[in-house]
Amino acid sequence: MEERLKKLGKKQLSELKFTEQHRKNIYRAIDREQKSDEEILIATLQLLNEKRTGFELLQLLEGRNIKKFMNQEGSLYLLLHELELKEWIASLWADDHLKYYYLQDKGRKVLMKAEEKQQKNSPALKDLLGGDILYE
Predict the structure, then answer these.
(1) CA torsion, points 44, 48, 53, 56, in degrees to nearest 10?
(2) pLDDT (tens digit, 0 to 9) for every residue of the chain, 136 residues total?
(3) What order do you get walking across the sheet with 52-53 strand by strand?
């Protein structure tokens, strides 16, 4: 293995050959890692059940493997501003000169509906909640 890695280091990336199946597998793996906009929205609203700064929210989203905002932190603030305009969340400036975001009643209703929809569309989760999956 170590010898193979040494040889690989000497080659240029463009010289490496991949089969079409290998390429498809790589693209599928990348797609699996990317979360849908709906999943990102649900996670954001869930995390804003408590007051959080944008920075805290960014770290918590990354902890949930949501990488959409990595190196694009401004995109998160655009999303937060959009959610404020819809009155799903609100913000306030605290004495520590930090801006905190939190969920409003309208946002809670949207979150509840989204979570219900997500549960209905997830057969494995539905089976688990229904007791159909048993572990020995």
Answers:
(1) -60
(2) 566 666 665 555 556 677 887 777 776 666 555 567 888 899 999 999 999 999 999 999 988 888 888 888 889 999 999 999 999 999 999 999 999 999 999 999 999 998 888 777 765 555 555 555 444 4
(3) 52-53, 99-103, 89-93
